[in-house]
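S.,

As promised, the adenosine-5'-triphosphate run. Input:
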Amino acid sequence: MTGRPAVTPLSADTGTGPAARATVVRVENVSKTFGAGAGAVHALREIGLDIGEKEFVAVLGPSGCGKSTLLRMMAGLEQPTTGRVTCWDDDPRELAARHALGVAFQDPTLLPWASLRANVEFVYKVCGQRTDRDRVTEVLEMVGLAELAHLRPHQASGGMRQRTSLARALVMRPRLLLLDEPFGALDAVTRHRLNDELEAVWSRTHVTSVLVTHSAEEAVRLADRVLVMSDRPSMIVQELAVPLERPRPPASDPVMRELIQHCLGALHV
Ligand SMILES: Nc1ncnc2c1ncn2[C@@H]1O[C@H](COP(=O)(O)OP(=O)(O)OP(=O)(O)O)[C@@H](O)[C@H]1O
Ligand SMILES: [Mg+2]
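Predicted complex:
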């Protein structure tokens, strides 16, 4: 890394910015207000961003700033009050209808009576397709669940349930993966391990990904680019490219530390 600035302004050509790739997600001048009058909540204000093909973008921001709202718009689950969100120039709902979106949230809702494997297989039923058992086995291996997939959710740990959620999101080979704090409820050690596994999965698939997180370390560990949002009404106050090869060094590495501190600084402005 000598001679290369650790904290690269996004305008610099790092090869990881959206300019270097075809655009997958485009957020144009998006504002979102919930409710009206005195009780209105202005969640997002004039957000604009592009996410490139095969890019991994992390969205970091304080609680309640509108990160989930933004992700839900990319998933076609929420509509902007003004502005526009498109995926491959199309309405995200079209992408969702073609099962090209993989989504995982903080609290996975698994079918309690079904095994972890059956929970992943269930995605085929929802999509009206025949179960591809080899593909299910493949993703279960990818997320480190191969040996334990016979367990039911109540017999599984929080980490195993999150792995199942990730396997469900990946099984249909999505073109876009949306992750909303998938590891937020886990203890630090399990979270760290799952970060490593997600990094390995991403290095294998290179699926265009957006990760919402509260953790600057998680953002820098996983993403090509970190977007930091302000408090409500939220704007993007910082964009940071992460110019490090994968697998990324530990958080104690000086470059990692500098990048993490930079994100934390932007968070606390
Ligand atoms: N359906 C809704 N109706 C009314 N207000 C909403 C709705 N969804 C979100 N909000 C409000 O919009 C704001 C942003 O919510 P959002 O869930 O997007 O924040 P967040 O950044 O994901 O927060 P956290 O980090 O705690 O998950 C919050 O004030 C929330 O209460
Ligand atoms: Mg949220």
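Residues 6 and 255 are 6 Å apart (CA to CA). Residues 106-173 form one domain.

- D.
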